[in-house]
Design goal:
Structural class: alpha+beta
Radius of gyration: 20 Å
Shape: globular
Strand content: 15-25%
Bound molecules: 2-amino-4-trifluoromethylsulfanyl-butyric acid, cobalt (II) ion
Order of helices and strands: HHHEEEEEHHEEEEEEEEEE
Distance between the termini: 32 Å
Length: 291
């Protein structure tokens, strides 16, 4: 993975700087960590400044979609209307909804209500009612660059119990995010997420995780939430990925609707919440690109 570049050759990242003044030390550090047995990102996962700018433009659309949904959402709304808002806002801003036709997914967004864990289909038949909790998971392609984030919305008067699930899940993401530091490990983040979920009596879904993102919708690494500190991929500056834990009020088990092979539900019917952010590891910490 570390091709031979002369110290005075232009850096592989496209900065135009000499390799020795740019990613030379970076590559050496990764090589050392790899030799120690750590999982390190391949070079194609490290975003260049140009790519980061493009991803940020894509993310502006994604954030605008979630903001527009936040303004429009109300009891009595069909989730198909959320799909329409997503399509309209995204395309008006020059983007494409990334979920549409992704591996056969038939809509522009995922709308997962109550015990739906993820990949809920927007529908004319799903009418939001007072007390529902819903995750809207938007993803955008702009000029070939991807963004992805999701939020929870509480519909009308929700129970204290459900509001707590939504709040704690958000805190899980925030605590995970605090662990995103250059030369840290993905497992540091994972540990923070599951510790907080368990401390509140909840369980983290194991089958679905976050992912690298930017040039593709789903890139390496796969981002789970069961890891231990100091394990899993090294958080090298330039790595861009999502943190998107699905937290169940009850047990961790899930099943996939066999009618469509997409919609995911909690096995025990308990409610599930999810927030998703897209984060970039920087030289000094991290930057949230989409939230
Ligand atoms: N937005 C989802 C994620 O966070 C993508 C689900 S795949 C889709 O990775 F096709 F349903 F969009
Ligand atoms: Co995602």
């Amino acid at each position: 993975m570390f091709g031979k570049i002369g110290r005075n050759d232009p850096c592989w990242c496209g900065s135009g700087k000499k390799y020795k003044k740019c990613h030379f030390e970076f590559d050496q550090r990764l090589a050392e960590l790899e030799a120690e047995g750590h999982e390190v990102p391949t070079r194609d996962l490290i975003k260049t400044p140009d790519q980061i700018e493009k991803i940020k433009e894509s993310a502006k659309i994604n954030v605008a979609v979630l903001d527009a949904i936040g303004e429009a959402i109300h009891p009595g709304m069909k989730t198909s209307e959320i799909d329409k808002i997503t399509y309209d806002v995204t395309t008006k801003m020059g983007g494409i909804p990334a979920p549409l036709n992704y591996e056969g997914y038939p809509y522009s967004i995922c709308t997962s209500v109550n015990d739906q864990v993820c990949h809920g289909f927007p529908s004319d038949d799903v009418i939001l009612k007072d007390g529902d909790i819903i995750n809207c998971d938007a993803s955008t392609i702009l000029d070939g660059y991807f963004s992805d984030s999701s939020r929870m919305y509480c519909i009308g008067d929700c129970s204290e119990e459900d509001k707590k699930l939504v709040q704690v899940t958000k805190e899980c993401v925030e605590l995970g995010l605090e662990q995103v530091k250059p030369w840290g490990y993905l497992g540091d983040m994972a540990n923070a997420v599951h510790e907080h979920a368990h401390a509140n009596g909840y369980h983290v879904v194991r089958e679905f995780g976050g992912h690298g993102i930017g040039l593709e919708f789903h890139e390496d690494p796969w981002v789970g939430y069961t890891g231990k500190p100091g394990t899993e991929m090294v958080l090298a500056p330039g790595l861009c990925f999502t943190i998107e834990p699905m937290i169940n009020m009850g047990g961790p088990d899930i099943y996939i609707d066999s009618e469509n092979d997409w919609e995911v539900y909690t096995e025990d019917g308990s409610k599930s919440a999810q927030w998703e952010i897209q984060v970039l590891v920087t030289e000094t910490g991290h930057e949230v690109l989409s939230w």
